Amino acid sequence: QVQLVESGGGLVQAGGSLRLSCAASGRTFSSYAMGWFRQAPGKEREFVATISWSSGTNYAGSVKGRFTISRDNAKNTVYLQMNSLKPEDTAVYYCAARPRGTWSVNQYEYDYWGQGTQVTVSS
Length: 123
Fold this sequence. Notes:
The chain is mainly β. Helices cover 0% and strands 48% of the residues.
């Protein structure tokens, strides 16, 4: 069993930056793929970024070049650095873990989820 706890959300002006963190329990974190997803009010949850066990990454087109996913296996933590934020980035951001270590953009391939952290970008 893996528990995930997100932090780092908040209110920021357009053009600003935030760094989200996701701390994972368990000794097998380094073998997991991790992902970030988001859900805006009235919309479906959508893929944002993913990182494999070997630190290969993939991004949604809407965030490519602005967001960076990374991981620190010594700290059992995955990060999402968000720069040049836009109002349309406003959403609840969720961290997810996938025991199979290859990255995936499909939320249904992730077994564990955090509770989410709110990111609000004002114009």
